[in-house]
Input
Amino acid sequence: MRIVNINKVVTGQLLGKSLFNSKGKLLLAAGYELTNDILDSLKSLGYNAIFIMDELSEDIVPEEVIEDSIRQILSQKVAETFEGIKNNPAFEAFAPENIKQILNSDPSFKNVVQMQSVRQQVDMLLDEIISNHVMMFSSLPVKSENGKEYQHALDTSILAILIAQKFNYTKRELRFLGTAGLLHDIGKLPFKNLAEKEWEVLTAEEKFILREHPSYSMMILRGSEVNTFVEQTAVLQHHEHLDGSGYPQRLKGVNTPPRPSKTPEAGVIYRFAEILAVANEYDRLISGFVDGKKYSPSEAISKMIGKVGNWWNSHALKALTQVVQHYPVGCCVRIRMTSSHKYAGYSGIVSESNEDEQNKPVIVLYEDSVGGRITPRKYDLSREKLVHLEMIL
Output
């Protein structure tokens, strides 16, 4: 199967992978024949691309980080957790500018997050990753706009765990980081009206309130379970930058490998937070949270590399490049350039990833440089010294 822009899907084609709504409920089963009405409904739900099954890609099986059934359960649980915070009547009773003060003093804000449920979600996620020896994150652009904050929380948690594995974090430490990944943005949820606005139309006061969301996240977490010091610290600092330009504390980093340490150093970004910051920013870029554009995996990494050493811990960012598929299996690419000049301008479908050199996957060529269909043929780009690909959507 392959990923196709929903505007290029032809009526009568078959859906390649089942689609679920933001709360994990089945929308459309794989194998369903696509009609104009179905495609219009998917567009209204915010789908930009979907998987299709056809003769060209019948032998291509996308690599998933976690099974659909597990993701379905986790998405439903994360949605329940988020909705519980978002619709908590205690938050609606106060003006946004007073929430921080109330979080510190009002007992009605205790136990807003059901931490036992969150722990179970993270354990389920960890068991799936560890038991299946998952090492790679497939950044597939098949996401609905509806409920994307739930998917962002889940994918940030997965990414943070995969990055931390590169630094030999224990399962207990991975559990801390996975929990922080799921809950890092819960401080935005009490301000759902502000969070839904475009950044450019917010007032200075509204921007200040939203930039304080790491503090709110930490305070909600602290009120829900006192014994969460590691998670609180990571959540509080996930928007800090190495050069001190981040928020809310304007901490600085030391740019050493983010191996786990017993206690945070005063005035220095916590190791867990440095990993969470990289995972969060990457998923924000590919999800369209930063500037409205959904970056491809390779574009997102290139954009982050431009800030390495200033914003991002270089060791954490290097680990990110090792755990993310730059060109996920099932996506279509165009060969812009190779060292041999072979197949320049040709298009193909990624059939196998290359763990050692992510920009050199195996592809099935199906179209020549002028758009003419050719007999499909496999080409292993690891043969080339230099490769420049462009993802097609």
Remarks:
- The chain has 14 helices and twelve strands.
